[in-house]
């Protein structure tokens, strides 16, 4: 499989986008809006000119500021799918897909993306999901060597999104193209990419597999961005191998991670159990947080429960068994091994 | 409020009605076969066609550049393009003479090539192009600025160079806006009077356009002047209607089956 290297600095309005990446399978850049995600794609595509840097595919340079080299977008072999898809409104679906095909027949692509029946329709007549399939087909008809996806799922409604996410993950596996995608949604990134980079204000905070990011978040932002609970406190050495953290609320928590001073305690929702009563002797979990039950949100067959400052994820069945209701009091418990300590 | 509107509309309409009211339509048509009229018509059409071809050919790339590039002095250049719009026609005429006339800035260079512009049809073309091009360029800039830059970017990533992108994406999407601008420029050029009479003179069959012929006949034969005015009213009215239709016409109107908002 080919490898895309990108290493550049692009000045943006408030900060500089500084990125060094190697993409051979699928890499997702995630981050809040305005972090420079789209700009990263534009640099690779040749639509933005960085101050310094190099972009190369398998050693063949598309951009090298040292040699004053920058191929125009039409001479880089990229397939860029825009966030709003940027379909040509004056052309039919077929003509859109054929635009970059250099005369190759596109019927097979239309069928593959289930848009054959829409071939003579114009983009304004299509639904969001259909437009996305047209945009993908159009990008692939150009036979790109690199695929760039800008928020591929953001323009879709929640119902379409889940379905399209599966399809897209499947497609990316089949294509075996170096793919760089950007999204503000960590769950989308984890579902679509092998490696996820967290981008904040133009800088990569952490790059790793989704599992690595969850197991070892480098800082508080990465932890909360990947969906963890974050509690602030002051760490000191406790008994044995444990670190004790005094929270701002005065409660103590324990972690198997080592740290001292101001820290963030990271707990993922699936590490947290919820009970209506607390029996210290019967419970092996060292950490207990008593709190009021806030919102209850059902996600598939799981329920996300807010207990005091924590979000816990329990099965729908146990939520019913516990009789959890908003406003009631509950105990959230989790093990010392289920926590990570990160710098704030 | 209604009274004010009625007065305003009547005021605007009355002169036009008056042109048609004084002489019978048959008489008007008969006047149109006089040589002073046919000569003027030929001069007007010929010079307008050449001038508008130049406006389109030079104005379109100019407008595209000004609309899509950001560079120092850009807004100054946009103002420069619009200047002839607000210039009094007499000033435009003097300016053209001072620039291209025999003793003008470029007169010597033009003379060296054996070119004398004063009192020729080429002078009419220059005068018409000078006063009408800003209308086209202004509208073209606005039209090009309204095109989603992502569509241009998409075209480029799909392997189309700048030229192919312009002809396959930008131009088809701007067609209507450009047509509207050109219609305005054509109408303005057809009615051009002041700069032309100063720079090109009013020689029947050579530089005498319809407006100049109207002015001449107004002193000689008022009926002929009326007939030519009626002709210009009809042409201008037709242009206006065509313009309205162009701007309202939608290619493939979405039907009730498709309720989705168009993607920009």
Kindly give the count of domains of chain B.
1
CATH topology of the largest domain in chain A: Rossmann fold
- Level-1 CATH class name of the largest domain in chain A: Alpha Beta
Largest sheet of chain A: 6 strands, mixed
The assigned CATH architecture of chain B is Orthogonal Bundle
The backbone outline of chain A, from C-alpha atoms, is globular
| CATH-derived architecture of the largest domain in chain A | 3-Layer(aba) Sandwich
- Strand fraction of chain A: 35-45%
Verbal overview:
Chain A has 344 residues and is of the alpha+beta class. Chain A has 2 domains: 4-77 and 145-220, P-loop containing nucleotide triphosphate hydrolases (Rossmann fold, 3-Layer(aba) Sandwich); 228-342, RNA polymerase II/Efflux pump adaptor protein, barrel-sandwich hybrid domain (OB fold (Dihydrolipoamide Acetyltransferase, E2P), Beta Barrel). Helices cover 23% and strands 36% of the residues of chain A. Chain A is built from 9 helices and 21 strands. Chain A has a 6-stranded mixed sheet with strand order 7-8-9-3-10-11, with helices on both faces. Chain A has a 5-stranded antiparallel sheet with strand order 2-1-4-5-6, covered by helices on one side. In chain A, strands 14-13-12-15-21 form a 5-stranded antiparallel sheet. Chain A starts with a strand and ends with a strand. In chain A, 44% of the residues are buried. Chain B has 264 residues and is mainly α. Chain B contains 12 helices and no strands. The interface between A and B is medium-sized, with 33 and 25 residues.
